[in-house]
Design brief:
- The structure is a single chain.
- Helix content is 29%, strand content 23%.
- The chain is α/β, with parallel strands linked by helices and 186 residues long.
- It has one domain (21-185): P-loop containing nucleotide triphosphate hydrolases (Rossmann fold, 3-Layer(aba) Sandwich), CATH 3.40.50.
- It has a seven-stranded mixed beta sheet with strand order 2-3-4-1-5-6-7, with helices on both faces.
- A hairpin with a 2-residue loop joins strand 3 and strand 4 (65-72).
- The structure holds guanosine-5'-diphosphate (GDP) and magnesium ion (MG).
- Residues 27, 29-35, 74, 130-131, 133-134, 163-165 line the site of guanosine-5'-diphosphate.
- This is ADP-ribosylation factor-like protein 3.
- InterPro entries: ARL2/3 (IPR044612), P-loop_NTPase (IPR027417), Small_GTP-bd (IPR005225), Small_GTPase_ARF/SAR (IPR006689).
- Belongs to the small GTPase superfamily. Arf family.
- Keywords: GTP-binding, Lipoprotein, Myristate, Nucleotide-binding.
Length: 186
């Protein structure tokens, strides 16, 4: 059983005048991280740094603001390097495969572990229930239940449904990211 602890909600993070922010995309392997990354890169004119098998790093321009995006592999071995990126992350997306009920309980424990890291206490979190186009996709209420999200208190978070295959929900994701990045510019 995983528990989410209360965390304070202070959002001003970047120093005044800083024009860089960082977007970290996490989730289990096969959840859709790289597909989401590809869509965001199209929308935000992403430029890729030399990718390697474990981490793909992109530079996006969001409202004239330079944002680094990291898409890090989510298999068990590579999850060990996730914490190396927490301190640098200013916005966090955690993506789920909404048709994989068995792995949602794994995702719950993985997300719980991620959120125990104090470096992410103030980081706005967007949880994506992906693969809504598939017939076995679970409804939002079931995903919230299986993920124990009703216990996720004291932080700036939200959940949205999407299909990165069809592009459904991408506009809402873009709006959320833009809003969070804009707040960090001030
Ligand atoms: N049906 C469907 N398949 C998806 C969706 N998003 C990703 N996929 C597929 O799921 C698989 C894993 O996606 P990928 O982005 O590589 O996952 P990652 O391991 O988290 O980076 C690929 O075959 C994708 O084409 C979606 O919204 N719907
Ligand atoms: Mg990937």
């Amino acid at each position: 059983m995983c528990f989410y602890g209360p965390i304070s909600l202070i959002k001003k993070i970047l120093p005044t005048g800083s024009h860089r922010s960082r977007l970290l995309i996490l989730g289990l392997d096969n959840a859709g991280k790289s597909t989401l990354t590809a869509r965001l890169s199209e929308i935000y004119n992403g430029e890729s740094k030399e990718p390697n098998k474990q981490v793909s790093e992109w530079t996006l321009i969001i409202n004239n603001y330079k944002v680094q995006l990291w898409d890090i592999n989510g298999d068990l071995k590579n999850r060990q390097m996730w914490p190396n990126y927490y301190q640098k992350a200013k916005v966090l997306i955690f993506i789920l495969d909404s048709k994989d009920a068995v792995r949602l309980s794994e995702a719950r424990c993985v997300l719980c572990d991620v959120l125990m890291h104090h470096e992410l206490n103030r980081t706005p979190l967007l949880i994506l229930s992906n693969k809504k186009d598939t017939s076995g996709s679970l409804p939002m209420s079931t995903v919230i239940d299986l993920m124990g999200l009703d216990r996720l208190e004291g932080r700036d978070w939200t959940i949205k449904e999407c299909s990165m295959q069809t592009g459904a929900g991408i506009q809402e994701i873009v709006d959320w990211i833009t809003n969070k990045i804009d707040k960090k510019k001030k």
